[in-house]
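FAQ: What does a ligand-bound record look like?

Like this one, built around AR6:
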Amino acid sequence: MPLQIIRQDITKICVDAIVNAANTSLLGGGGVDGCIHRAAGKGLLEECKTLGGCETGKAKITGAYNLPCKYVIHTVGPRWSGGRKNEKSLLESCYKESLKLARMYNCETVAFPLISSGVYGYPKDQALKVAVDVISDFLFENEMKVYIVVFDKAAYKISEKLFSDIAEYIDDNYVDERADYRSERSRINCTCQSTAFESAEYGLSDLCKYDKALFDEGLDIKIKQIDESFSQMLLRKIDERGMKDSECYKKANIDRKLFSKIRSDVNYRPSKTTAIAFAVSLELSLEETEDMLRKAGYALSHSNKFDIIIEYFISKGNYNIFEINEALFEFDQVLLGC
Ligand code: AR6
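The answer part, i.e. the structure of the complex:
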């Protein structure tokens, strides 16, 4: 998954470069800047002193000293002034300039904090949107794995309205499913009782022989009718949509290597989250999504929140994978594309 949102302390992440939300002096401060300098040790400050500061929206790179990464990229975010002072484009520039430096230094993995969203007061939801938009644009053209590190859960919050809509949808569907589940169980119990009765009448060994002959015959026919596999359906849908492979896997937030594996193995069995990520990328209808999932051996059920949230977004025709992931994160579910 080329872009992942995780909750962690950025100083503990093993990547090629971590990004620091610094100030124009580059001589350290509070927030994540303070954490990075403390964890890196004095050498980092000594190197920063030689850089001559950094303008807002720009970035500079140093070694990482005692940190587990190779480099620290220092960028200076804008202070929030109500959105009237070009904050958005300055913040976009922080991400662009940092990614440019990371590419120049051949970094394959980079972790960003939510720049400007602490001491500098940029609203966290808007700061996250800028980060996701700029990074995903960059990943359309470049091979890199990028993490957005959110320190507190509040930073990663979908709107109240969306949250309550999804909560309501989960509520409604949970209830229906529970009722269906109860009636299904009582139906299964009845069937089990009548089967037990039949076994007693015919004798178990006769039944077994009879079943085996039927099974062999049925199996033979079934094997001849093997359906299109997951990978075949995926490639067919890509063609039908007139998409390029790269367009599809990038939109699904899946990396190229995993896509090549799926492409070259007709019987590849993806994880459920990967299969759904492709369904979202291809903008499949709910019915088509369920068909594609079945081919990978999965189903959407109403007995877990993850499935209901996916169903909610697909049935609303909302195929924005990052918004879906925000909702999954909010409801403590695994994210798509992993
Ligand atoms: N790991 C990941 N994220 C963190 C960590 C951590 N260890 N610590 C804080 N955050 P901030 P800014 C999050 O204030 O708003 C400094 O004094 C935090 O929750 O560090 O760009 C500089 O010297 C928030 O979401 O940076 C500047 O003067 C995000 O990191 C000024 O603050 C950014 O918060 C820069 O302010």
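Follow-up question: can I read anything off the structure? Yes, for example: The mean pLDDT is 84.
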